[in-house]
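Hello K.,

You asked for the raw outputs rather than the summary table, so here they are, unedited. I folded two proteins back to back in the same session to keep the settings identical. This is the first:
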Amino acid sequence: MSSSTASRRVFLAADPLASAPWSQWLRRVQPLLYLLPALIAVGIWVYRPLVQTFVLSFYEWNLLPTSPQTFVGLQNYSRIFQLPDMTQALSNTAIYIVGLWPLAVVLPALIAIATDELGKRAREIYRVLIFAPMMMAPVVVAAVWRWILHPTNGIVNNTLNGLVNDFERIRFFTDGSIAIWVIIFITGWKLTGFSTLIFSAALTNINRDIYEASAIDGATRWQNLRFITIPLLSPTILFMTMLSILFASAWSFTYINVLTDGGPSGATTNIYYLLWVYGFRSFAIGWSSAAAMVIFVVFGIVAFLLIRLSNRLAFYDN
């Protein structure tokens, strides 16, 4: 009999409560107790508002404590799909997703690959510089870009006016044909550094022995990129694609609110901004809650499908 077994039997004999059923149950539950504060916080700040939103989607209310909440059933759900601004917001949301994907996925992946072979010091300095916009508050970023792209005093318009004769100043935020693309560019500019760091970390995790084996076989740089780097980056590419689809409109909310206010004529409004307008401008809490629940279900299904697709298409070196 080993010494550890003997000591355990002596302990149990000295303390009969240690072998009681409730004590064994407590040892199994103890790890969950460490998670209890986090679970409570998630329940209060995530699931409680979600349940409240679901309940409010069946009522008509204007947020005033003295105003009664009138039960309307599914009427809010039927109304939101008949609103013309909802159709435009959904169309713009699709444009935000498509337009932001190259700036949040393709460009950062190319930058990370191109700078992967820099020296350690140069690579660290570069990563700090490219990540700097991500550390700025979105409102500050919006204010800076409003100054840069101002139609009369902006640096861009003044520079182009000095280079081109009879230059007609560009109204970046009031021209309906380009305003949404300006918002997409600003959003992507801020996210590029974050995405680049994600791809750089993924490149660091690739086993370098694979490249050494390919060098022995005479593989070129292009072949390494096509048959090794890109396939092994596929999990990160799919993950960032999922984030881009799910959060493209949420990431651009601040810039819409500060720079265009959803205009001109709703040209930059997306679904998240429209929810805010319903809830805190029109005070149509029922509409806002119903639209939020529809978006929650749709994006939940999209996330589930993207995760299933990622599990099928992602390639791992192990």
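The second followed immediately with the same parameters:
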Amino acid sequence: MSVEDSDIDPRTCGDSAASYVLGALTEPEHEAFRVHLESCAVCREEVAALQVVVSALPSAAPQVSAPPALKQRVMASVREEAARGTAGGLEGAASGAAREPAPRSRRRPLASVRWGPALASGGALAAVVAVLVIALSAGGAGTRVIQAQAPTGADVSLRVTGGHAQLDISGMPQTPPRRVYEVWVKRAGGAEPTDALFTVTAKGDATVGVPGGIAGVKLVMVTSEPLGGTKVPTSSPVIVADLS
């Protein structure tokens, strides 16, 4: 398939590379660009170059925890909003009871309860913010780190948090010219592509998120593949992380 045969405008060839690497394309756009990569060396090189930058971004940002004072302020706000909501609810219930007696036998099914208005209230919103603050200040609670098999001299771990996974790589050899690393997952069947392609820095470092959830995944693997990636592995895995 050539550039002319694809849905990609030859005049803007390469413009979608950054969005592709960042996962910002829609599903049809992603698939069209993925097919386009199979026959376009320019875009393959652009994707490989951008992936180096994207892979280095997480490690460049300092890891911080929410200060205790912020957590205390948010929790105080939550308690205040909850108190207001309870008082308002009691007043509303009292006035409603005066107007109309409550039905004796009708019970609204749980599945029919509309949660939208409740979540739109200030108290519920503050509660959600509080959960986020507590999660941030917990410093990675619930995170599982799996040491992966890797080439001699390389250190690779798979960080699993909340159903998502990320590969933390250091000391990995550079890929040969016109090749990239590709991430695969293995469930019950064969290896499944994730569309995650990357190269490593001069020091062999990279941070790569595993696209999609990891429900049912037994292995996360990395192979060396031609630019643009492949649908099936063409080489033996150089990184293997066992989740079982």
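Helices lie at 17-22, 27-37, 41-60, 68-99, 116-119, 122-137.

Happy to rerun anything if the numbers look odd on your end.

Regards,
P.
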